[in-house]
Amino acid sequence: MKLEYSGKVIELFPYNTLTERDILLSSMNKEFDLDKIMNILSSCIKYNGKLSKSEKILILYTLRSISVGEEIPVKFTCKKCKRINEQGINISDLVTSSNIKNKKIVDRFKELTDENFNDFYEGCDELELDEYEKVFNEAKESVTKFNFIKECKCHSCFEPQLFDISDPEYVIENLSEDSLMSIYQTINDLVFFSHYTKDDVDRMFSFERSILISLLNKTREELNK
Fold it and tell me: Helices then strands (H, E): number in the chain?
């Protein structure tokens, strides 16, 4: 698929079982380094330019969406009624393209703050206070925005709960819905009960593997009736 925003085009390809296993191995070692994970997924990403931290997070979530699914399960206790909720966060809408009209504003593809405004607007230190606030707000509204704050409502009292999904550890841990053990169990089942080899399963996209093991389990249940 093509990830397109603000004039950028990044080609992405679903990751397979072997790559997903490498991601899980890295997570087991508590290595939540975005660049290392991006390197593991390098064969799935076609883009030669520099990427900000926000863009790397966006790419990882998009790869997760096309490889595993676009909904991440979350479990939380409602802050109001204290009920335990199990829901899903949709990760398909995480970026809003820029609409810059001021030629002096440069998009840096990261969150704009008072501290880094000079990166987006050269000479901002020379602006008068009123002009500074005006230009800052204009830049804030017009540059690329990444939407990593997601909302879920409690099933019982409908109280909104906000989740910040931009933490690298959270991103990396949610690139798979499996554990290493469950992946090896799936490989064993597909090899033992079907005509697939281990290499066949390693080359399968994650969603293909999930579909096939689901069908296999259904067939086994029907045969056992």
Answer: 9, 9
Range 24-33 contact pairs with CB under 8 angstroms and sequence separation of 24 or more:
24/176, 24/178, 24/179, 24/180, 24/183, 25/180, 26/172, 27/172, 27/173, 28/180, 32/168, 32/169, 32/172, 32/173, 33/168
User: What residues contact residue 18 under an 8 Å CB cut-off, 6+ apart?
Assistant: 202, 203
For residue 46, give the 3-state DSSP assignment.
strand
CA distances from 116 to 6, 107, 110 (A): 20, 12, 10
* pTM of the shown model: 0.91
C-alpha distances (whole Å) from 186 to each of 16, 40, 168 are: 14, 22, 27
> What pLDDT, in 10s, does the model give residues 49-62?
999 999 999 999 99
Task: Report the Cα–Cα distance between both ends of the chain, in Å, rounded.
Answer: 42
Over residues 94-152, the pLDDT tens digits come to 999 999 999 999 999 999 999 999 999 988 888 898 899 999 999 999 999 999 999 99
Residue 10 · residue 45 · CB < 8 Å = yes
